[in-house]
Structure to design on (421 residues):
């Protein structure tokens, strides 16, 4: 059973269903795209008890959690109490995403390269600190999860003060009880994924995502407007340094504090002039990065997840196809400030080979699909080169239409320039 309802979960369901184990698949709550390959169950992703009861009653052999909220809420412990298998970290380990202050302190103790920081639990103390600080910009972050809206890059002291006041204003709820003030790093950003049983790691390849709504990284932040993988700009030595200097010491430190991390660990990394530095950790697969990673996976994902559960990753390897993948997100009118539901989606028939369509926010009525939220569809093109993968993705995008459809036209453009062909 896969928990969640977005494009990431659609990609997970599709990849797990293709396992040679030939599993019977369920998804809670799933979406209309997922319902083609799995039996969807009407339980929201954050109803931990109902999910556990369903898993128990239906003898679900493995539950895979897509979003962070149930993990941070303790779904893993909830399942373990009933001896049910689940892929995802414990609540204690999921704090690595649930509290940015926790993650930064963990990194500090583990010697992981990351931006210098100060943490405050009172507005007055944070403002007093800003008055002593000379160099700007600084990055101001709410401690908890704030749907991508809790990070402000402040160019001046005034902007930083406003950001601190915003964090403590109550608009982020419990996520705004503490604030982080960080050094602003410069460089190129990447999302790095590893699968881990707490000790051993299987590198799950890096990807690049695009957070801003507009071409050229203009406009407000979103949940993600596109992605591509692999990253030809990242040197193998840099990738090795990320695994050795960021991932391994972090997992070691988690064991030391009695919160071993198992599942999928996602590190947001800035590759700076002085080497890679960790920006943050997430406790689950990235969205939309998963949509460009899973189509490239040759190994059996279900087998690997079962091996994580048996703490048996030692000596395993993960195989990748030579394919490249590019994902373009189609968003509804008004996104990200608002979103528009109920617009009929056309052009989903006859999707060419090498293209995957993942549903992210759709509704199905009488055999027709409609928009049902901000990020509606993920269109993934694959091919032997980024040029081909990208051309396939955008050709499929041209074929799909709904009122107010928005998408970026520059996804993976930078990668083409770097491609050796
Ligand atoms: N110290 C930093 N220096 C420069 N940019 C940063 C820094 N921290 C975060 N950012 C930028 O802000 C974005 C969001 O921050 P992140 O810590 O990933 O929080 P979240 O994903 O929870 O919103 C990052 O993807 C990065 O672009
Ligand atoms: Mg992030």
């Amino acid at each position: 059973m896969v928990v969640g309802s977005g494009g990431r979960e659609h990609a997970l369901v599709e990849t797990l269903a293709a396992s040679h184990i030939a599993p019977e698949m369920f998804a809670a709550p799933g979406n209309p795209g997922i319902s083609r390959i799995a039996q969807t169950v009407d339980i929201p992703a954050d109803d931990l008890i109902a999910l556990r009861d369903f898993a128990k009653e239906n003898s679900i052999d493995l539950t895979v959690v897509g979003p962070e909220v149930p993990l941070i809420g303790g779904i893993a412990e909830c399942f373990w109490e009933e001896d049910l298998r689940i892929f995802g970290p414990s609540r204690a380990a999921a704090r690595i995403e649930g509290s940015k202050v926790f993650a930064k302190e963990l990194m500090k103790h583990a010697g992981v390269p990351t931006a210098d920081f100060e943490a405050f639990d009172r507005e007055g103390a944070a403002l007093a600190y800003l008055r002593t600080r000379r160099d700007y910009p600084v990055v101001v972050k709410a401690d908890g999860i704030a749907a991508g809206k809790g990070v402000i890059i402040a160019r001046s002291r005034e902007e930083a003060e406003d950001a601190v006041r915003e964090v403590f204003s109550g608009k982020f709820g419990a996520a705004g009880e503490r604030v982080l003030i960080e050094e602003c790093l410069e460089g190129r950003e990447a999302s790095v994924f590893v699968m881990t049983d707490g000790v051993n790691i299987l590198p799950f390849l890096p990807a690049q995502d695009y957070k801003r709504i507009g071409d050229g990284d203009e406009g407000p932040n979103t949940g993600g407007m596109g992605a591509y993988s692999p990253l030809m700009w990242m040197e193998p030595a840099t990738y090795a340094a990320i695994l050795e200097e960021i991932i391994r010491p972090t997992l070691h430190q988690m064991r030391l504090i009695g919160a071993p991390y198992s599942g999928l660990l996602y590190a947001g990394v800035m590759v700076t002039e002085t080497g890679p530095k960790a920006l943050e950790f997430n406790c689950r697969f990235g969205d939309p990065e998963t949509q460009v990673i899973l189509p490239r996976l040759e190994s059996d994902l279900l087998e690997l997840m079962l091996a994580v559960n048996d703490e048996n990753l030692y000596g395993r390897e993960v195989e990748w196809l030579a394919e490249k993948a590019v994902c373009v997100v189609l968003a509804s009118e008004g996104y990200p400030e608002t979103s528009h539901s109920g617009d009929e989606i056309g052009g989903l028939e006859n999707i060419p080979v090498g293209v995957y369509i993942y549903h992210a926010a759709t509704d199905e009525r009488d055999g027709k699909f409609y928009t049902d939220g901000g990020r509606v569809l993920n269109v993934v093109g694959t091919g032997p080169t980024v040029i081909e993968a990208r051309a396939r993705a955008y050709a499929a995008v041209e074929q799909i239409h709904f009122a107010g459809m928005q998408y970026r036209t520059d996804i993976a453009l930078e990668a083409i320039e770097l491609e050796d062909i």
In short: The chain has four domains: 2-91, 122-177, 188-309, 324-418. The mean pLDDT is 96.
